[in-house]
Amino acid sequence: MFVQDRIYGDFEIESPVLVELINSPAVQRLKGINQLGVPQEFYPFKSFSRFEHSLGVMLILKKLGATEEEQIAGLLHDASHTAFSHVIDWVVKEIGGDESYQDDNHLTILRKTELPGILEKYGYKLENITDYHRFGLLERSIPDLCADRVDYSLREFSPEVAKTCLEKIIVKDGFIVFSDVPIGKLFAINFLERQKLNWGGLIAVNSYYYFAKALRRALDLGCIKFEDFSKDDQYVLDLLKDCQDPEFLKLFSALKSMAWDKFPKSDRRMEKKIRYVDPLCNTEDGLKHLSELDQDFKQTLEQDLAEQKKGVPLVILE
Predict the structure, then answer these.
(1) Angle between the 50-63 and 147-154 helix axes, to the nearest 10 degrees?
(2) What is the CATH topology of the domain spanning 2-202+273-315?
(3) 76 with 21: CB under 8 angstroms?
(4) In the prediction, which pLDDT does 257 show?
(5) Nearest-angstrom CA–CA distance, 62 and 75
(6) Dihedral sign of CA atoms 258, 263, 265, 268 in order
(7) What pLDDT is recorded for position 255?
(8) Domain boundaries, given as residue ranges, for the chain
(9) In sequence order, what are the residues at sequence separation of 6 or more whose Cβ sits closer than 8 angstroms to the Cβ of residue 187?
(10) Which of 241, 261, 265 is nearest to 253 (CA)?
């Protein structure tokens, strides 16, 4: 299989198990799941599919010399996402919190697919593949780098910044690190900007809150069923567009306007999951976090985190 990726370039996938998994219905379904959750027609930030991201995670792992097993884990790490990705957390809880619904239900959801059979055919077990503590390149706790965190970031950076950062990413002592401190800072600052402007900003928080409110309204009215979220975004959107309840249509109209800055603000403040990185950098004295090497970044990070913890105001829809 030949793969063309806008971040990593051209790859030939020779592994039979990876080819079969990529072509499986469970992985192909991710082409219809928006990475940023809220559908593009209601969201001003350009997104990409969970399939593109999942394939990208697999490719960067391959590029960094990960085992076939870890590449498989990377490819499948998001295969349990429901329609609208992390919006489901806001549907279930009203406030997304740590946005852990997909992680909490990952193994249960994948067991219901064809994936366990494919894995067993090639000598792998789903339970091992989904034990992400075994894969230090794929997953690391914040603030360290991991293939998952690196890939979705690079896809939102400008092409020039993404290319520059990728060229300085290496593996050292089992960690994904930067071989160049200034480039590590470039990555970390761009990551913070995406968090402030997109992932955790006023538009994202309010879009998630009100789109989830519309989905809960549709569930209460019977326009959709919870099991419909196991399909893709368009499937559920088509059902939503047949829902003619006036209150629901009012919510949909406000979402489509995307005029969050123009709506009045309430006193209530909310936040999405706070994401940030303090990447390890390779130095003559060994691996050190960027904040240990750059006081300016340390101060910026501390200020940004303090600001993000205050949350953003909930807008009042008119």
Answers:
(1) 120
(2) Hypothetical protein af1432 (1.10.3210)
(3) yes
(4) 85
(5) 11
(6) negative
(7) 86
(8) 2-202+273-315
(9) 153, 165, 178, 277, 279
(10) 241
- The per-residue pLDDT for range 97-133, each reduced to its tens digit, is 889 999 999 999 999 999 999 999 999 999 999 999 9
Is 103 exposed, middle or buried, given 0-12, 13-18 or 19+ CB atoms closer than 10 A?
middle
pLDDT in tens, 57-75: 999 999 999 999 999 999 9
Q: How distant, in Å, are the alpha carbons of 124, 229, 259 from that of 149?
A: 25, 24, 30
How distant, in Å, are the alpha carbons of 165, 177, 213, 292 from that of 188?
A: 10, 12, 33, 13
Q: How far is CA 59 from CA 3, 108, 165, 219, 248, in A?
A: 9, 26, 16, 38, 41
49: enclosing H helix or E strand? none
Distance CA 103, CA 79 (A): 10
So what's the pLDDT on residue 245? Answer: 86
- The answer to whether 165 and 154 are in contact (CB under 8 A) is yes
Residue 21: both structure tokens together = 């998994």
Please give the Cα distance from 56 to 1 (Å, whole number).
15
Task: Give the pLDDT score at 265.
Answer: 93
Residue 318: which pLDDT band, with cuts at 50, 70 and 90? Answer: low
DSSP single-letter state for residue 153: H
- Residue listed under structure tokens 């079969």: 20
What value does the CA radius of gyration of the chain take, rounded to a whole number of Å? 20
pLDDT 10s digits, 260-273: 888 899 999 998 89
